[in-house]
Specification:
The chain is mainly α and 223 residues long. The protein is built from seven helices and two strands. It has a two-stranded antiparallel ribbon.
Length: 223
């Protein structure tokens, strides 16, 4: 249990110091933490009640993909994007933060949400292991927890960049699609117990490259 608490707490604490060093108000950092706490409840409830949902006519692998798309992609990323849209980042006619600062604050929010979700993930597996009289396999669980944190943070950063652009009249009507697709494929691969789960690392790296490419595009447009 102490391992999960450390993995949950350290990124959040480090993130607060990084945000402060980057000129983001501490009050806004704590608002991001509070927002993550607020939406972790509906996300956890959705995951719990959709745990065994499947379409009998579909192959098992297609059911896994469908659940990844609807629950982890569409529902989770929609909630995150709607939350980020109300952050004190860049309102029309009044820029509070730069694009990079907005992305960083959104990344911190997503990272925090990922940390809370990781704690729920660890706790559920701990209870399951105890009910079976078995011991936890820490290595795959820690791997999943770390990648959960990163994919939540990167998807939130992508949404934060698009929202900043939207607030600044650089319209992106379908900006939510990219995080939905990324999170869908991450969860699809991460759910496997075979070596296929390592394809989730490729998805995480793709999300990182996507963030970098969006920054580079913004700099070119500004020249």
């Amino acid at each position: 249990m102490s391992i999960s608490i450390v993995l949950t707490s350290l990124p959040i604490i480090a993130g607060i110091f990084i945000l402060k060093a980057c000129g983001i108000k501490l009050s806004h950092a704590f608002l991001a933490i509070l927002a993550a706490l607020v939406i972790i409840l509906p996300i956890s409830l959705v995951q719990y009640f959709t745990g065994n949902i499947s379409v009998p006519a579909l192959l098992p692998v297609l059911n896994i993909f469908l659940k990844s798309l609807l629950v982890y992609g569409l529902i989770e990323e929609s909630l995150k994007t709607l939350t980020i849209a109300f952050f004190p980042n860049a309102l029309k006619g009044k820029t509070v933060y730069t694009e990079r600062q907005c992305a960083l604050l959104a990344f911190f929010f997503g990272l925090t949400l990922g940390c809370f979700e990781s704690e729920v993930y660890f706790f559920s597996h701990l209870l399951q292991a105890q009910s079976w009289g078995a011991s936890l396999m820490y290595k795959p669980i820690i791997f999943r927890m770390i990648t959960i944190d990163l994919i939540h943070g990167l998807c939130a950063a992508i949404s934060g960049i698009y929202i900043w652009k939207w607030h600044n009249n650089d319209q992106h009507t379908f900006f939510i699609i990219s995080p939905v697709i990324v999170h869908t494929f991450y969860d699809f691969f991460a759910g496997f117990q075979t070596s296929l789960k390592y394809f989730s690392i490729i998805v995480v790296l793709y999300a990182l490259v996507k963030c970098i490419s969006l920054f580079e595009k913004q700099e070119k447009d500004s020249d």
